[in-house]
Amino acid sequence: MQSSVQSQTEANKKGPTQGGGSDRSQAAPGLKGASYDEAVQMLAPGADAKSAGQGVGQSAATSTAKATKAAKAEAPPTFGATDPKGILDGVHPAMAAKLRGLIANAHAKGLDIKLHEGMRSFERQNELYKQGRSKPGNKVTNAKGGQSYHNYGLSVDVVFHGSKPYGEEHDWTKLGEAGEAAGLAWGGHWGDRPHFEIGGIKIGTLQAWYADGGLQNVWTRVSELHGGPTFEQEGEDAGKAPGDGGGKAPGARKVPGGGGIYKVKPGETLGGIAEKLLGNVQRWRDIATANGIIDPEKLRVGQELRIPGWKGGGGGDAGTAKAATHVVKPGDTLVAIAARYLGSSNGWRTIADANGVTDPRALKVGQVLKIPGGGAGEGAEKKAAPRTYVVKPGDTLSAIAEKLLGSAKKWRELATANNIADPTRLKIGTTLTIA
Questions:
Q1: Is 92 domain-assigned?
Q2: 64, 86 contact by CB (below 8 A)
Q3: Which CATH number characterizes residue 289's domain?
Q4: 179, 291, 322, 351: which has the highest count of C-beta atoms within 10 A?
């Protein structure tokens, strides 16, 4: 018995034998946790404890690396805050909705983006315009106050998270695709890659809308085209340029309902329809607003219009409108009078025909003119006060025409309406009638 024990002890000291499975386990401690195939390989003839341990270590490291890589591939990407400045609250609701679509599309493409700048006041726009011109720095914009979609809450700059938000290493093409898929126009097509805006509205149109009723009018008109409520500004914010005094967006109000439906007939105009159905040609603007019409010259025969305040019936006839009268004052012109009563300087021929005026330059002070469809007398002039503009330093007729009428080429209309013989001699402080 003692001899047997001694023999076993000596055998253990010499190391494992080819037939001793339990002894091989003791000789290869690295087998713990190994798979069956790994154990078979490491227990093959010639494998020692050291190689067995290394084999398990290498295999485990490889398995861990693969698992980590797979986990990273399966884990959803993480993105930074998309609107840290609260820009969505300051742009038009239709713009905000499209931006949310852009963000979702960008994230689906793996792009880590954020909104950088949205609503911008006229004052800030002018300061940016000075950069690289009268102020140090590189030029960052070619638009002055009122000439940028930012000034109306209809555009936003989008950049990437990281130390280089405008860097070339980012996939700007994918970002552009994300915005266009959401219904936005991308500035990358004209060299301004971060820029996205609501498309389909010319800047001149926005300027004219703003001149007619401020930002609330602009946003109401945009809602008619892209969806959303109508707007109004109250108190100290009324009439201010966008972004002034804190850059508050106008508050929403309910759209007035009611009104009958009228089908456009051949040869009809908004002014004619307004005179026919509402008794006042000046109410063409109400019809245009109620139907989202930007260009009143582009009516279609058969087009259905909602006529606010009209109950319908009688084939669209609402009686004969009474003609207003106007007493010619010093400085009056037919063009200015037409703009005042009829809402368009083009109506001067209507007034001329109604009064037998063959030479529009031969008006006499004190002359009484009949204004077809213009209301019920001289009092109508007070209700339909013309738009006016006070000339500021640096103004030109062409710049004023572009700002208020949507085209610099309309400076001649301003000159005619205001009896200006030399458009290069505008005086600061002069009040102009805007036709």
A1: no
A2: no
A3: 3.10.350.10
A4: 179
